[in-house]
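Q: How would the structure tokens look for this protein?
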Amino acid sequence: MNNKLEVALKRLNMILPLKERQDKCSAQHKELHQQMLRSFVTYGRILNKDEMANWVDNVPQAMRVLSENDMVTFSENAEPTGAYPFTMSEREHIVYVNGFKVHAMCALDALAVAPMFDETTEINSQCRVTGEPVHIQMSGETIQNPEEVLNLHFGIIWGAADSGASCADSLCMDMIFLKDTEVAKKWLSDDVNGREIFSLTDAVEFSSRFFVPLLI
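A: Here is the predicted structure in token form.
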């Protein structure tokens, strides 16, 4: 992994240290978190509260731990709604996996699904600047349609992170696809200190190294 990726990975782990938080959980809570991740690929949705009871003795306690650590998002009526990289909310990043249509929290999250589960995926999204469609086919960490996405970039606005809100509602909203090198460089030039761009290949490695450890 190149130095730019190492720095970015450390920076993201400082903002949202998912693996560190998961490892500090009890064995039951860690297993529940992993099962909630797997449920999106197995069932096309997150586990509900009744299903959570199959993995932990105390569901309210588990919900509190997962929520306070920003590992799982919940609705106002305390229903599970997402577990990074997945969300039940309709966002611009759609991932087709195992016959299901699911949504990813952000562009980086969408790229993580295939490596996490060693699955074949199709990502439908769009360039945040131009609105043009983005279509990525993946198998594990391999891009299956490189000729279509040769110049696609991933962009992030680091300053969007908000300690007073979940990452799902702050930083994730500004982790985006940019259709080509020209658009990406122009987008970056608007705030070179607060923004960062990555090639698609680097973004896949970034997402894989951040998310794959969550299933170990």
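The mean pLDDT is 97.

Helices lie at 3-15, 18-24, 27-42, 49-52, 59-68, 107-117, 181-189, 200-211.

Upvote if useful.
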